[in-house]
Design brief:
The chain has 22 helices and five strands. It is mostly helical. Strands 2-3-1-4-5 form a five-stranded mixed beta sheet, sandwiched between helices. Helices cover 75% and strands 5% of the residues. It has a domain of 153 residues: Alpha-Beta Plaits (2-Layer Sandwich).
Length: 567
């Protein structure tokens, strides 16, 4: 059946407009256009157009920071390109996928993809493909902090770039500048004789990257933001603080104007580092605090981890040591989360490979091939199960207090906004209780910290037995605990807390130490319209202090519902 020429023209236009959006950095529009093009090509049964649309979609998703989705689309594109026997296209897609895999922490998988792409490039004698393979191998090594090895691959790629397009020429000089930042810091720490030369050459590459990014024909806003940011960082390392900060701020303006959110966060982080070097640690701390909130909201774990660590440094320099400790703890918690996320991502990727293998099994005719695929599927399924166990364990450790096995502060602060939003949406009540052990310092001073830890573990067990499955039970820090009780009004929550208080008071503490007596004070507050999480905690804290001032071993709530004293 002949295809309507108008539909063919529409498909061609969609692909062209999507490519234009990629070049201009308009990722959101480009993604929508590429998906429309793929759907139309699929309806027409046009495999070539399907492959073109999928490759465009993958590149757009990668530029937008949606790296796991990018990798999945690359798998899909690779299947179509294999059916078309387009080896060059497959190699290029593997290069795109490798960058995405590296961004989500799967460096080994990225190098595996690049090894296949390198074989294709050698077989086809494809110099442009070989350039991109070498360039991306360098990126992976730089991510693993092996900057010297990365530089070796970059120099080999640079030799191939002279005859290639503007994208290749910009990418290699910008990547050399970026890798040189880490290389210079390593050389400086080693007191290497070529340290000054590394920085001088890096500045030259960074300046060339800016020139190419500003080219009226081939320059794009995304390239400009990348180039200005790297140039600024190198200027700061060279001691030219004002010029460096201005370059980083220029990168930030471009990123903000064009919606490059991940890149904008990176420029805030880099700008704050420059402010610290200039002696403006207080301003740096303010900017990093805002950046950390944004990184948390966006779910960008790697940059969130970096920002938390730099915020720790800024807070220490300004004498805000308690805040610095909190920031450092967040850095550690995010680091654990990131490890868990990488393990979970690897498990999901293996599941996708299993699905592909099962699909091949359905189409396989030869018994030997079928047995081979089944064996590989069993192996992959075992790996998935192992990774899922690792991911679950890492997730538990990231959200669980190591001593009491209750939710830790990080998990509490993540869950409370969700519980509050759910209560507001459904009109159901939400009550919060803050609990504090009475005279806990006296317990530690009298019987030692080992006994104190045993008391905390025992109290945690009593809390678990007193609460429902859906309640949030956590250790907020030290001897302070927190209960979030969804669906309970304040009077109902007070009754629960009375049970908790009595269970602690009546527990046989002599099993830990003869003569030991433990009591607990509790403040209860029920969320009101317009309350935020901090309001809940502040009101519950205020009532906890009232319980302490009134003699301890009490539950305090609204003045009309005074808690009972020790019996």
């Amino acid at each position: 059946m002949p295809v309507d020429p108008q539909i063919t023209a529409m498909l061609k236009d969609l692909l062209a407009e999507s490519a234009t959006a990629l070049d201009s950095g308009n990722c959101e529009q480009g993604i929508e256009l590429a998906r429309e093009a793929y759907a139309l090509a699929d309806d027409l049964g046009d495999k070539r157009a399907q492959a073109d649309a999928l490759v465009l979609l993958a590149r757009l998703l990668g530029q937008a920071g949606q790296h796991e989705d990018c990798s999945q689309v690359c798998d899909q594109a690779g299947k179509v390109l294999t059916e078309l026997d387009d080896q060059a296209g497959l190699g290029q897609t593997l290069v795109v996928q490798a960058l995405a895999l590296n961004e989500i922490g799967l460096a080994e998988e990225a190098l595996d993809s690049l090894a296949v792409a390198r074989e294709i490039a050698a077989r086809l004698n494809d110099r442009p493909l070989l350039f991109w393979v070498l360039n991306r191998i360098a990126v992976v090594h730089a991510g693993m902090q092996d900057h010297a090895r990365a530089a070796q691959f970059q120099m080999r790629a640079l030799e191939l770039a002279e005859d290639l397009d503007a994208d290749a020429r910009f990418c290699i000089v910008n990547n050399i500048a970026d890798n040189s930042i880490g290389l210079y810091r390593q050389r400086l720490a080693e007191d290497a004789p070529d340290t000054a030369t590394v920085l001088e050459q890096a500045l030259g590459y960074a300046e060339r990257a800016v020139e190419l990014a500003l080219d009226p024909t081939d320059g794009t806003p995304y390239r400009q933001a990348l180039a200005y940011d790297n140039h600024g960082l190198l200027l700061v390392l060279a001691g030219r603080l004002e010029a460096g900060l201005e370059s980083i701020l220029q990168a930030r303006r471009i990123a903000r104007e064009n919606g490059f959110q991940a890149l904008e966060l990176a420029t805030i982080y880099h700008g704050a580092s420059a402010l610290i070097e200039r002696g403006d640690a207080r301003q740096a701390a303010e900017e990093l605090t805002v950046a950390l909130e944004r990184a948390t909201a966006s779910g960008e774990l790697p940059i969130r981890m970096d920002i938390a660590l730099e915020l720790t440094r800024a807070l220490e320099l300004t004498g805000q040591f308690e805040a610095a400790l909190r920031s450092h703890k967040e850095h550690t918690a995010v680091e654990r989360q990131l490890r868990s996320a990488v393990a979970a991502t690897r498990a999901r990727r293996l599941e996708q490979l299993i699905e592909v293998d099962h699909a091949r099994l359905d189409a396989a005719d030869a018994r030997t091939e079928s047995q081979m695929y089944r064996a590989r599927s069993r192996q992959l399924e075992a790996e998935v199960q192992a990774l899922e166990r690792v991911a679950a364990d890492l997730d538990r450790r990231a959200n669980e207090d190591a001593l009491t096995r209750l939710s830790n502060r990080h998990h509490i602060e993540a869950e409370l906004p969700r519980l509050l939003a759910g209560a507001a949406a459904t009109g159901q009540p939400l009550s919060l209780a803050v609990l504090d052990l009475d005279h806990f310092k006296h317990i530690n001073d009298t019987w030692g910290h080992q006994t104190g830890d045993e008391v905390l573990v025992a109290v945690a067990g009593l809390l678990r037995r007193s609460c429902r499955a859906g309640d949030l039970t956590g250790r907020f820090g030290g001897e302070e605990f927190l209960l979030a009780l969804p669906g309970l009004t304040e009077p109902e929550a007070v009754e629960v807390c009375h049970r908790v208080r009595r269970s602690v008071q009546d527990h046989d503490w002599s099993s830990i130490r003869p003569g030991l007596r433990v009591t607990i004070s509790i403040g209860v507050y029920s969320a009101q319209a317009g309350d935020e999480v901090r309001d809940l905690i502040e009101h519950a804290d205020e009532r906890l202090y009232r319980a302490k001032r009134s003699g301890r071993n009490r539950v305090e709530a609204d003045p009309g519902r005074i808690g009972e004293e020790a019996s």
